[in-house]
Specification:
alpha/beta, about 35% helix, 7-stranded mixed sheet, about 200 residues
Length: about 200
């Protein structure tokens, strides 16, 4: 996709705070520090549209970004290893659950998994939960620049074996550093938007 414009719209802490618009939304979900914000920045070819950090748990709100005046990308807080209180983790869980189950504009979730980790219970549960609600899931494996081509082929084969029910289509290997996978991810997003 040719990026003509990409801008921050709004941050929201609850479903009632979400921006009102007519565009379809694609949400980005994954563990803390998996590279969701970096992925979004590479996807829209902007260095600092979505705020990034090496500290897990920096994204604490639902962040909405309007791309080409036609699609909204939503950066969700990460789950898992964030150094925050149990209460905040519970609030994040409730915020994301409400957004994912109640947002009428949502058409797909890009599930982001670090290529050096395994698909765990959280990912499997999320995919099954979304599948029950007819929300499409696109699986993206990030930080693939850490592997040689041969290692990556083996790693992707392992991911395909452990893919949870509800993941359809290909697994997209992605590198925010090199841009690998950007075109494939836009192709998957555009296919979902067109449905």
């Amino acid at each position: 996709m040719k990026i003509k414009s990409a801008s921050f719209m709004k941050s929201a802490v609850k479903i009632g705070d979400c921006p009102i618009h007519e565009c379809k939304e694609i949400a980005f979900a994954g563990r803390s520090n998996v590279g969701k914000s970096s992925l979004i920045n590479r996807l829209v070819l902007r260095r600092a549209l979505a705020k990034t950090s090496n500290t897990p748990g920096r994204t604490r709100l639902l962040n909405f970004f309007l791309v080409n005046e036609e699609v909204v990308l939503v950066d969700l807080p990460g789950y898992g290893f964030a150094r925050v209180s149990a209460q905040m983790k519970e609030e994040w869980g409730e915020m994301m659950s409400n957004y994912l189950s109640q947002r009428p504009n949502l058409v797909a979730v890009v599930l982001v998994v670090d290529s050096r980790r395994e698909i765990g219970f959280e990912e499997t549960s999320l995919v099954e939960w979304l599948h029950e609600r007819d929300v499409k899931v696109v699986l993206v494996i990030t930080k693939v620049d850490k592997f040689s081509a041969n290692q990556l082929t083996k790693r992707l084969a392992q991911f395909k074996k452990s893919c949870p029910y509800g993941i359809e289509g290909v697994i997209i290997p992605f590198s925010a550093k090199t841009g690998e996978g950007r075109d494939s991810l836009w192709k998957a997003i555009n296919a979902v938007i067109a449905e």
